[in-house]
Amino acid sequence: MTSPKILKTASTAANYALHQAADAVVFHGDCMRLINEIPDESIPLAISSPPYSIGKDYENTEDIDSFLDLHKRLLPQLVSKLQPGGSLCWQVGSHVKNGVVTPLDYLVMDCMRAMPEMKLRNRIVWTFGHGLHCSNRFSGRHETLLWFTKGDTYNFDLDAVRVKQKYPGKRYASGPKKGKLSGNPLGKNPGDVWDIPNVKARHVEKTTHPCQFPVGLVHRLVRALSKPGDLVFDPFCGVSSTGVAALALDRRFLGAEVMAEYIEIGRQRLKSALAGEAEFRPAEQEIFVPDPNSSVAREPDPIEWQEVVRIRTQPIQNQVRACA
Ligand SMILES: C[S@@+](CC[C@H](N)C(=O)[O-])C[C@H]1O[C@@H](n2cnc3c(N)ncnc32)[C@H](O)[C@@H]1O
Q1: Considering the domain boundaries, does residue 107 fall inside one?
Q2: Any residues with Cβ below 6 Å from ligand 1, and which?
Q3: Least buried of 48, 71, 115, 230, by fewest C-beta within 10 Å?
């Protein structure tokens, strides 16, 4: 295995990944420049989470039209680089401005309508337990992931992603198979609602990136939608979470990222993954249930609660507003 290559020339990055079969290449620059250098119909799997235009450190706009403009320019280019039968997985949340929510996958679907060869196979709901607590609407606890294939024939390895059944001992109740086990010994289809903790403060994968997605989320997609040796492309790779999943599964990785700080963190993570030492939380790990006797899970003293109520009912300008 070679070390990850970080390159500032788009044509060199594309050449290493596509023609010299390097294990991990990250282009430091605008992904559109890299995409333009990728040969048509050469990428088997692209997975990404683009900027949401909500004013994060790495964005210069909060305008939803800029999300739409970016996607109208980027998606047709990206799709032309996908192999026939290749997959595109696009992970987005919601744009929130002045308390008004726009689910971004609606906008992505609108752009994809111009490309009828792209068939939507799943709209996966990624749900998680933690985030901002809203006071004027229900707190957001899911984002979505759209999986498209280019054309009708595609690779989907269900056995690679089966999960534990709830009732593995279930048997046919009637018919010729009555009394025989009715489940699949490899487990069941994971479905299209995935409960995977988001990467917050004490998560094993946490870096300084404000919105990295969990490696487990991508790991499942890579297992199901690609084969060992395949190249996995992430045009907005952040700290290279997609790359960590790809390398951990003996695939190769090509990414693009504009921020040097994230590229450096990603480089370290890719290096660990190449050495077989990637640290991440598997998607199949059970969700943590706190010990009911631990101090944080027990009901506090009613007097302490009263103090909380007193503070909450102070005039609004003295309180910290938590939610956009
Ligand atoms: C939602 S984050 C992706 C995080 C990533 N999935 C991870 O787990 O680290 C979007 C990333 O795209 C980067 N970015 C924004 N515009 C870009 C562009 N034109 N080309 C490449 N990267 C870009 C941002 O710096 C940011 O790190």
Answers
A1: yes
A2: 30-31, 49, 51, 58, 209, 211-213, 236, 238-239, 241, 256-259, 262
A3: 115
Flag whether 312 is in a domain: no
Q: Which string of DSSP letters, residue by residue, matches 94-144?
A: EEEETTEEEEHHHHHHHHHTT-TTEEEEEEEEEE-S-SPPPSSSPPP-EEE
Nearest C-alpha to atom 26 of ligand 1 is from which residue?
A: 238
Please state the pTM of the whole predicted model.
0.92
Residue 249 in any domain: the answer is: yes
The CA 248 to ligand 1 mean position distance, Å, reads 21
319 within a domain of the structure (yes/no): no
Reported as type and span, the H/E element at residue 232 is strand 231-234
CA of 238 to the centre of ligand 1 (A): 5
Ligand 1 atom 7: the closest Cα is on which residue?
A: 212
